[in-house]
Design goal:
Blueprint (H helix, E strand, L loop, with lengths): L3 E5 L3 H12 L15 E5 L21 H4 L6 H4 L3 E3 L4 E5 L4 E4 L4 E3 L2 E4 L3 E3 L12 E3 L3 H11 L6 E5 L3 H12 L3 E6 L11 H13 L3 E4 L3 E6 L5 E6 L4 E3 L2 E4 L3 E3 L2 H5 L10 E2 L11 E3 L4 E2 L9 H15 L14 E5 L2 E7 L11 E7 L4 E7 L5 E7 L5 H4 L12 H4 L16 H5 L7 E3 L4 E2 H10 L5 H8 L9 H14 L16 H11 L4 H8 L9 H16 L15 H5 L2 E2 L5 E3 L10 H14 L2 E4 L5 E6 L4 H10 L12 E6 L13 H12 L8 E6 L13 E6 L2 E6 L11 E7 L1 H18 L6 H8 L4 H10 L7 H14 L3 H6 L2 H5 L6 H5 L12 E4 L5 E6 L5 E5 L14 E5 L2 E5 L6 E3 L21
Helix pairs in contact: 1-8, 12-13, 12-14, 15-17, 17-25, 22-25, 23-24
């Protein structure tokens, strides 16, 4: 008979404890009584199981409690866990070792874990309990706020608190259609995460969205209407803000009442005092998460430290007890109201103290602020990134260490610096600037580089899938995949093991070789290529999109129609399948083309009307376009139809293709302009729209050498001179910046078009999968040999293919059609945006299913299934909710095979699931529920 464990609280951290115990085989197994293990009872205050509070705001855009749930189907039953919802603990008797629940039940325990979390702080002001006042902490809060705000007379909302949760709440009020104010007592927004400069950039971004920000002032009281409802908020400055809704998000306090009442040690400012093993002053009681004050004297309000505490307690309960928790990295990276915000290390040390110096980049035009704080020895102490946080993955592992390159290379938008290690670094970087073994490469699961290296060697791993399965690294947000690949490649090279050649298990050919086979042998389908050059199987989420991309590029030469015609639809990732960019909550963004940034007043109005009518979030993108966010899949065709009527076409922000060509105002308006950069940007964008390439590419045109369009940070950069145009190629911004190289000087417009045609078509022929032009030219030899090679091929015509490359581009331009319009004219393509009839599918009527392409079916209970049919006609059905993201998207994943097993890859972060069992092959502890289609 096993021992009894009582867990008080079933939030994210409490549930992570249960998962960690299961991973250590420390829980009871009802099918194996002899196994022993902990018999667990969980007392939960809420009426629903653990859910993802980090993405609580997704509930305002339609995500349900079931979709946000963290409890895998069958998990509780498998381990005999007694989860008692709505029955919180009321009393702990540490002498008798019992817990009394609200229901009156008295539970004995051998060990007790407090995972009670925290409660929202409501300042003691008059009127705080009036109707229309809310906290923002739980799904019940969200539901109550949504219901109240739906009333016609509710028009304005105020959030008290400008921290992380406060700004999330402000975003929620905007989503609900309310005019929104934010009140923060501190002199700046997010005072715990960013400094004055970062806060100023964040504030400018938020105010540009129409949110009024009030800092350095507190709430004095809520004025109440005679009917009992809130009608205004009075500030300590004497100002009044008319408000129908007041949301308190002014911080949290540890829920430590039970601990205080039973005599456990509690910190002076709250929090149950624990030791390095998260054990309280009673050796049989543990505390984890936001209710605990750890040995460093802190109470951590982030989920990642809570997960580490859960791992520590699980280790102790499993008998090993080797893990300790003595503090946590509070680095954060998030998106608030459309703005990227990240901080890591200790970025707040005053400059000059102990020799600390800061390196800062600020661009008020783009709302970008980046600061790195360095110690006297050059070690990176910490940093703040606002508006552009792409470098976070490269910088965070180096906190406390020397940077591998000048700090400017990490924060400037464009530089001649070398590529840097991080989430987007090329594999070669790992050998040139290796990360230390104790650097955390996967923050989601706290996996170090050393642990990955050990797994590669011990398990003879040769691919990312193996690393995911053995370490869980890469199975969270997916942002570390580039770093994992770099570590893997370095280990394979050190062991003199040849990296597996080809795209995947289905093809030993590279992307460039596949391109040549299709081009020269006029192969017109994936099936034909697989039959001629494949290694068996059904394909996968790696090779299918690559072949779809190549077929899209060569469509004018092969006589193939739209990218979604026939079998091609089954090859496309969700972005290309629905011609929109998938977002984290399962909705999509729609970004129409605005060539060169030029737009008419009527088109601006049309975009505003669509956003208003569909309740969409709007943002001016960095590529001089307007993005509409929060579009549901079934809404896409109607929105395209309306935008098409206003003269818009697809901007292809979803594809491996041209994103946009940015421009300054040039000689039309600027007194320094030497060329019409606006018109040239428009011409280039219309010339290359729809062109499928190995990876996305971007362009920029500056009207003079002042370079306001930042053209040298683009794949194609053009700068006007007194004698024509200079063409620069293979530039890149982001986390691995690279200045573009000068390919040709003083070109007239016709020469410029011809040279750019050659460059792009040669890149398409020789580039590898997901290889940007910056990485491509480095592989060709870099700034010297690589550039010389391009000049020889594209200018001197050393291979005799220049005329052929130009002719191929001409055929592309002649065959171009707007992808949105083509779908609207195709009933079969439109059908994919809806659901299939579950009753018909249950009766065996699966004719509407396309082989290899999933569809969503709504089940009788209102939940969704993802239904697939393979080429042999076998039908599979699993739950549609992605267990990693909580979004209903599995039906939009790519179906294929792994080691002969039918699988589907989630379109979110590409975790692969066995369609026969629902088990995730990258993380076997996670699974999709199987759906029985039998009538």
């Amino acid at each position: 008979m096993g021992q009894t464990l009582v867990v008080i609280g079933h939030g994210m951290v409490g549930h992570r404890l249960l998962q960690a115990l299961a991973e250590r085989d420390a829980l009871a197994d009802p099918t194996r009584p002899e196994h022993g293990g902990w018999q667990v009872t969980v007392l939960a205050e809420e009426e629903r199981p653990a859910y993802d509070r980090v993405h609580l705001s997704a509930a305002f855009t339609g995500s349900t409690g079931e979709e946000l749930s963290l409890v895998e189907p069958g998990f509780l039953e498998k381990y005999g866990i007694d989860l008692r919802l709505g029955d919180p603990a009321e009393l702990i008797d540490t002498t008798a070792r019992t817990v009394t629940a609200r229901s009156g039940a008295v539970l004995g325990y051998d060990s007790l874990v407090l995972a009670t979390g925290s409660y929202p702080f409501v300042p003691p002001i008059d009127g705080a309990d009036a109707e229309g006042c809310f906290t923002y902490r739980t799904l019940d809060d969200v539901e109550a706020l949504t219901a109240y705000a739906s009333a016609a007379e509710v028009r304005t909302g105020v959030v008290i608190g400008g921290g992380l949760l406060g700004l999330e709440a402000a975003g929620a009020l905007r989503t609900l259609g309310l005019a929104t104010h934010v009140v923060e007592f501190a002199p700046r927004l997010m005072p715990l995460q960013v400094d004055d400069g970062g806060s100023a950039a964040l504030r400018a971004t938020i105010e540009s969205m129409g949110v009024a920000v009030h800092t350095g002032v507190g709430a004095a009281g809520v004025q109440i209407h005679p009917d009992g409802r809130a009608q205004a908020l009075r500030l300590t400055s004497g100002e009044e803000i008319g408000s129908d809704v007041v949301v308190f998000s002014a911080g949290v306090r540890p829920r430590d009442r039970l601990a205080r009442e039973c005599g456990l040690a509690v910190g002076d400012c709250g929090g149950v005092v624990v030791d390095a093993h998260c054990r309280t002053s009673d050796p049989y009681v543990y505390a984890i998460g936001e209710c605990a004050q750890t040995v460093d004297g802190k109470v951590y309000g982030l989920v990642a430290p809570g997960y580490q505490m859960a791992e520590t307690v699980a280790e102790a309960l499993a008998g090993a007890g080797e893990l300790t928790f003595t503090g946590a990295d509070t680095s954060t990276k998030l998106k608030l109201m459309g703005a990227d915000v990240a901080s890591f290390g200790d970025p707040f040390a005053p400059e000059g103290r102990d020799g600390a110096v800061s390196v800062v980049f600020s661009d008020a035009r783009e709302g970008v602020y980046k600061k790195l704080l360095l110690g006297p020895d050059g070690a990176l102490l910490g940093g703040i990134l606002v508006g552009d946080a792409e470098a976070y993955g490269s910088l965070k592992p180096h906190a406390g260490r020397q940077l591998p390159a000048p700090p400017e290379a990490f924060i400037l938008p464009s530089t001649d610096g070398v590529a840097l290690p991080g989430a987007d670094a090329p594999p070669a970087t790992a050998g040139r600037y290796p990360l230390p073994d104790d650097a955390v490469v996967c923050s989601c699961h706290n996996i170090t580089k050393g642990r990955v290296r050990e797994a590669v060697v011990a398990e003879s791993l040769t691919d990312i899938g193996g690393i995911k399965k053995c370490t869980k690294a890469g199975t969270g947000c997916g942002g570390c995949i580039g770093t994992l690949q770099a570590v893997l490649d370095a280990e394979l090279a050190a062991a003199c093991i040849e990296k597996p050649r080809g795209l995947c298990e289905h093809f030993t050919l590279t992307r460039a070789e596949i391109y040549e086979k299709i081009r020269t042998e006029r192969i017109r389908s994936f099936s034909e290529l697989l039959e001629s050059y494949g290694e068996g199987g059904e394909g996968c989420a790696v090779c299918k999109p690559v072949v779809a991309n190549v077929l899209g590029t060569l469509a004018p030469d092969l006589g193939i129609g739209h990218i979604l015609a026939g079998e091609q639809a089954a090859l496309q990732d969700s972005n290309d399948l629905f011609l929109a960019n998938l977002q984290k909550d399962g909705t999509y963004s729609v970004i129409p083309r605005v060539a060169g940034g030029e737009i008419t007043a009527e088109q601006v109005i049309a975009l505003g009307e669509v956003a208003r009518d569909y309740g969409l979030y709007t943002k001016i993108t960095g590529a001089q376009r307007i993005g509409l966010f929060g579009v549901r899949q079934e809404q896409l065709p109607d929105i395209w139809r309306r935008l098409g009527g206003a003269g818009f076409e697809s901007g292809q922000a979803y594809g491996k293709s041209l994103r946009a060509v940015k421009s300054c105002v040039g000689s039309r308006f600027c007194r320094f302009g030497q060329g019409d950069s606006i018109q040239l940007a428009i011409d280039l964008e219309l010339r290359y729209r729809g062109l499928r390439t190995p990876h996305k590419f971007k362009g920029g045109v500056s009207g003079c050498l002042r370079e306001c369009a930042e053209a040298r940070g683009k794949d194609i950069g053009v700068i006007a001179t007194a004698n024509g145009w200079n063409l620069y190629v293979s530039g890149n911004g982001g986390a691995t910046p690279r200045h573009a190289d000068l390919l040709a000087s003083d070109l007239n417009t016709a020469e410029l078009f011809a040279m750019t045609d050659r460059f792009l078509m040669y890149y398409i022929r020789t580039g590898e999968r997901l290889e940007r032009t910056a990485a491509w030219i480095e592989r060709l030899g870099g700034r010297t040999a690589g550039l010389d090679h391009l000049k020889a091929v594209l200018i001197e015509d050393s291979l005799g293919i220049c005329a052929e490359l130009e002719a191929q581009m001409e055929r592309h331009m002649s065959a171009y059609e707007d992808e949105w319009s083509a779908v609207l004219e195709d009933p079969a393509a439109l059908e994919r945006f809806g659901t299939v009839d579950f009753a018909a599918a249950a009766e065996g009527a699966t004719q509407s299913l396309e082989p290899g392409r999933g569809r969503t079916a709504v089940l009788p209970d209102g939940t969704e299934a993802a239904v697939f049919k393979d080429r042999a006609g076998e039908v599979y059905a699993v739950g549609n909710r992605d267990p990693f993201s909580g979004a209903d998207v599995i039906a939009n994943g790519i179906m294929g095979s792994r080691d002969g097993v039918p699988v589907v890859a989630s379109p979110m972060h590409k975790q692969v699931f066995d369609l026969r069992t629902g088990i995730c092959l990258d993380d076997p502890e996670v699974s999709l529920p199987l759906v029985d289609l039998k009538p």
